[in-house]
Protein 1
Amino acid sequence: MKEIDWANLSFGYMPTDYNVRCRWRDGAWGEIEVSSSETINIHMAATCLHYGQEAFEGLKAYRCPDGKVRVFRMDENAARLQSTCRGILMPELPTDLFEEMVRRVVHLNERFIPPYESGASLYIRPLLIGTGAQVGVHPADEYLFVIFVTPVGPYFKGGFSTNPYVIIREFDRAAPLGTGIYKVGGNYAASLRANKMAHDLGYSCEFYLDAKEKKYIDECGAANFFGIKNNTYVTPASTSILPSITNKSLMQLAEDLGLKVERRQIPEEELATFEEAGACGTAAVISPIGRIDDLENGRSYVFSPDGQPGPVSTKLYNRLRAIQYGIEPDTHGWTQVVME
Ligand SMILES: Cc1ncc(COP(=O)(O)O)c(C=O)c1O
C-alpha cells in the first residue's frame, strides 16, 4: 500500500479496506455483513432516490497517546439516528447493533486510523437508506444500513483560530416544523446554495436565522451556535436545528467549569452582547467565530478583532479534546475504548 501522508489529509473521501452492512427485511434487522465493495446496488425505484428516505450520522475514532482507540458518545449518535428514523418513518436501528457495527468497522480498518501525533482521525459515516421500491410516496419495505470509515485531517491545520460568518436570508435550510432536527440528506441539499453564496462572498460559512421570523439565531452551516457572556454559555433553542452532540457535551463542560448554561431563543441583536461566539460540531469541536456580518442591515458583530479565540472557548475546546483523547479523566463516561 502507498504510505498515507497523515499530516496532509483533508476532509475528503479515501477508500479503506472494508465497510459493514445490515439489511432490514420482512420486519427485522439481519446479520452484519462485511463488504470490501465501495458501491451499493439498489433498485431504481428505491425510496431513498425519489423521496429522500435517507439518514446519516458522523462521528470519529481517535488514536490516543496511550495507544488505545476511542470513540466519543456513539450511543448518542445511535439515539439521534433513531430519532431521525422516527422522523421519516424508517425502522429504528438498535443502539447495540449500531455500536457493534462501529467497533467492527474500526477494527477492520485499523491501518487507516491516523497516529495521534498527526492530529488526524478516523471519520465514521453511518448511512441508512430506503431500498425497497415504491412509486407512490410511501415508506420503503426494505432498508440498508452501511457504515464506512475514512481518515480525515485535523480541522485546524494552522492551529485553533477564528473564522468569519455571514447571515444568509435568501435561503432557508429547514422549516420550523420540518426536518431540521433530523440528520436527513434533504437538509444538506437545501443548504448548498446558502453555503456557496457564503463562500463566494469570502466567508467561511453561512449563518441561518429562524425561517419563520428571521429574528432568532438558528445554526451556522453544519454546526450549532453558542455565545459566551457574563460567565454564561448561551445556545439556541429551536425546532429547526440539529441537536448537536458536541453542543450537548459543551453545555455539560461549561456547567462543570462553573458557567451558567442557557438554552433559549437568541434574537439577532443579542449577538452584539457576546464576548465570545463559536460554531460547534464533530468536525472541529469548536470553530471560534471571529465575526458575523449581516449584509442586509450592514451590521457586523465582532467577537475577535485580533483573530484569537476567546478564553472560555479555548478552555472548553481543550477540555473536550483532552477527554476524547483519553488525556483527562472522562468523568461523564463519554468515550468508549474500541481498540486496546
Ligand atoms: C446541521 C448540523 N448541525 C450541527 C451539527 C453538529 O452536530 P455534532 O456535534 O453531533 O457533530 C452537524 C453535524 O453533525 C450538522 O450537520
Note: Residues 185-200 form the longest helix (16 residues).
Protein 2
Amino acid sequence: MKLAFSDADEAFRQDVRAFVKAKLPADIRKKVELGLRLEHADYVSWFRILEARGWITPGWPVEYGGPGWTHLQRYIFDEETLLGSAPRIIASGIQMLGPVLIAFGTPDQKARYLPDIRHSNTWWAQGFSEPGAGSDLAAVRTSAVLEPDGKHFVVNGHKVWTSYAQWCSMMFALVRTDPQAAKPQEGISFLLIDMASPGLTVRPIRMLEGGTDLNECFLDNVRVPVENLVGELHKGWSCGKYLLGHERTGIAGIGSCKQQLLRARRLAGEQGLSDDPLIAASLAQFEVELMALEYTALRLLSANQQSKVPAVEASLLKVRGTELRQAIYELLVDIAGPHALPFSIDAQFLEALEGGHELAAPAELGTLAANCLDSRKLSIYGGANEVQRNLIAKAVLAT
Ligand SMILES: Cc1cc2nc3c(=O)[nH]c(=O)nc-3n(C[C@H](O)[C@H](O)[C@H](O)COP(=O)(O)OP(=O)(O)OC[C@H]3O[C@@H](n4cnc5c(N)ncnc54)[C@H](O)[C@@H]3O)c2cc1C
C-alpha cells in the first residue's frame, strides 16, 4: 500500500530528492550510508549547502529565514534527506535555541545570535541536564547569582550529557537564580554562556559505541553578562518548556526507520539471508509496524487534525518510533553476525577512502554493532520513554 500525497507535495519531494542527490558531497554520503561517525566539518559543510538553498531552518518563521513549509513538507524534507543519506540537522542552535530567541529574545539578542546560528558559524550546547536533574529537569541546581553592581551573573554548577560541547563556542543553560522560590519550576533563568569563559571546563564522556560526543561541563565562578539573560529573570522555565515542546514533527524518526530498514533488506540480500524465515519474518513485521506508525504520524500532521492532546500523541510517536528503530538495529546485527564486530572500522574506511576503492562488504557490516549500541540513546534523550509512558498513562487513564 502506498500513501497518497498531493501533487504539490510530490513535486516538493522530487525537488528535495534531486537536491540531495546533486549537492550532498560524496564522502559525507558514504559515511552516513556506512553508519560512520561524522566530524564537525562534515555537518558544517552540509548545513551551509542547505543554508544556501534556504532550507537549514525549517522550524523558523519566514521573516527569520525559515522556508515557510507546512508540517507535511517538513516531514517530507526529513524523510528525503535521510533516505538520501544526508546528515540530520542536529545543531541545537538551529533546532532549539533559534525558536526560543525568536519567541523570547531581545532585538539585540536576535540580531547578534540568529545569523551566526543560520550560517553554522556558532554551535550551541544545550546545558539543561545535571546529575540529579534529568527527567526531573526542574531540579536543576546550577546557581547564578547577580553581582552587586547588577552587571554580571556568577554561575556555579555541573551540567552533564552535553551533546557536542567539544564543537560549541556557546551554551544555553537553565540556572537557578532564586533558590527560595515556592515551586522548583520557579526561580530558574535561561542564560547564554560563552564556552571560552574562565572557569568553564568541558570533560568528554566515553559512550557505549566508543565516541565522545557527550560531555560534562563544570562551571566554577563563571561570569556571564546580564544582557545574556533570555526572557525574564526567574522565568526561564517558560523558555525551557517552549524549547522542549517546539520540535514535534521529527520525533518519531520515521525517515531513519525507513533508512535502516532499507539497509537491512539490502544487507540481508547481500549476505544471502533474504529467504531465511526468521530474518524475512522480522523484516515483514517491521515493515508493517513502520507503515502503521507512518499513517499515525501523517494523520497527526494533517492540517485538519484537531488534536486535544498533541503532547501525548507526540509521546506515543516517540516511544513507538524509537523502539522500532532500536529493534531494526538489533536485526541489522543479526544479519551481520560475526562481521558486526571488526577490530577497527574507522581505519578500514579511511584506508578505502584514501585509496579510492570500495569497502569490502564485511567492512560495512562492521559498523553495525556500534550503530546498535548507539541506538540505545534514542529511548533516553528527548524525554526518556518510561516518562513518556507515564504521560500517556496519565492522559488516558486519569481522565
Ligand atoms: C545521547 C544523549 C544526548 C543528550 N544530550 C543532552 C544535551 O545536549 N543537553 C542536555 O541538557 N541533556 C542531554 N541529554 C540528557 C537527557 O535529557 C537525559 O538523559 C534525560 O532527560 C534522562 O535523564 P537522566 O539521564 O538524568 O536519567 P534519570 O532521569 O535519572 O532516569 C533514569 C531512569 O529512570 C527512569 N525514570 C525517571 N523518572 C521516572 C519516572 N517518574 N517514572 C518512571 N521512570 C522514571 C528513566 O526513564 C530512566 O530509565 C542527553 C542524553 C543522551 C542519552
Note: Residues 310-336 form the longest helix (27 residues).
